[in-house]
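Re: the 80-residue chain
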Amino acid sequence: MLLSELGGKEIVNLNNGERLGIIADSDIIVDEKTGKIISLIVPERKFQLKIFGGSQDMEIPWDCIRKIGQDMIIIEVEEI
């Protein structure tokens, strides 16, 4: 799969069904030596003004990804 094919997919947690965001809004951390993806950084989706404390990002380790489908990425994490 090409990195460009990940764009636009929604990230969903298998444990609670929570929609965490869209990969287009996320950053990917890549190991510079191996070229392998280490984790995804997904910005918090809740509407809040950055004036009052800024936004928090969640980092999802690549090994938590269970399935990459045509429209979404299923992850399995206990608590975010």
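The longest strand covers residues 37-43.
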